Every structure is written in C-alpha cells, then in structure tokens.
Amino acid sequence: MKRLYVLTRSDLGLPYQAVQGAHAVAQFVLDYPDNEWKNGYLIFMAEEDEDELKEWRGHLQFDNDVVYDDRKQVPFSLYYEPDLDNQLTAIAVYTNGRMFRKLPIMGSDYKQPNEQITAPKFEQMKLEA
Q: Are 75 and 25 in contact (CB under 8 A)?
C-alpha cells in the first residue's frame, strides 16, 4: 500500500519540523494534482539534518530506478524554506515506504518537558517576556 512519507530534519525544533513537513505535503499536491494519494495515509519521518535530506534528494532524483518501490518513478517533492536561506527542510514521497523503514518517526526521540505548560502558565510567560 502506498503512503505519503514526509522526511523532515530532526535538527529543527519539533513544531518547525511539522510546519516544514506540511509545506512539503502542500508542494506535493501542487506538483502532482492528479496524484493517487488523495489525502490518505501520511507518515512523518525524521533525518538528522540537511545533508541527510540532500542524500535522499540525490537518490530520488538520480537513482530513481533503484529505490525500493514497485515502479521506477517514485513521485516526490522538495521543500526549501525561504526563511532559512532556502535550505532543504522536508521531502514528501509517495511510496510503499520500504526505503524508509530504518528511519525514526518524527518526534520519536523528542523529550517531553518535566512540566506541562498550561494555559495560565503560558499567559504568565507571555507577560514576563
């Protein structure tokens, strides 16, 4: 079964990873308006940094016949963040996912803070800032 896999960078904060991943999904929909995905399964994965994403970009662009899928052309979209000097921040790939099985799910290494920020505490933080 095909799913839309989104590769983000774990060197970015978790909220920023989510936003960059959403941009990659939006770009995928723009690049492939007649895509098969149709807002189905969406899986966010994480790579270490931009260099790792660039390696994936290379595999997808130049070695597309050897990526692990049951067809030669794997549809994918790249997202470059203008506010980060156009760094590559996320990639969306429509595939069966075998090529990503060794990657961690985005946020799986995220450390939960010791204390949850509640709404009143958040308001207090804004007042102190």
A: no
